[in-house]
User: Which sequence fits this backbone?
């Protein structure tokens, strides 16, 4: 049976803003509270993760990821409310996209 597949990414002025990989990175930062651990968990270098985060933060109206320092446990990284909203909106869009692909796949008659 044939199946339609595809990926979603969102651009801003022809520059990648959000896609599946970046959303996964944000979700892992939320889970671990660390860019280093998040990057390692998806086999990405810290430098690449930081560059992606920096790109998203520069393109967003408000910061998506914030680093903090100090305290008993040291510093860390957190996803902001803006970032939470972006994750939620992207995942919702992705779900609708997959449903569309599934419905359209049923109509294929090759």
Assistant:
């Amino acid at each position: 049976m044939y199946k339609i597949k595809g990926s979603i990414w969102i651009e801003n002025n022809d520059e990648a803003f959000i896609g599946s990989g970046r959303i996964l990175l944000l979700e892992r930062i939320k889970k671990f509270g660390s860019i280093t651990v998040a990057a390692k968990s998806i086999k990405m270098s810290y430098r690449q993760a930081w560059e992606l985060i920096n790109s998203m933060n520069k393109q967003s109206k408000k910061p998506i990821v914030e680093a903090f320092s100090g305290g008993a446990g040291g510093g860390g990284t957190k996803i902001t409310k803006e970032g939470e909203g972006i994750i939620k909106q992207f995942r919702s869009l992705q779900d609708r996209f997959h449903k569309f692909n599934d419905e359209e796949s049923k109509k294929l008659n090759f």
Q: What stands out?
A: Helices lie at 20-32, 35-41, 46-59, 81-106.
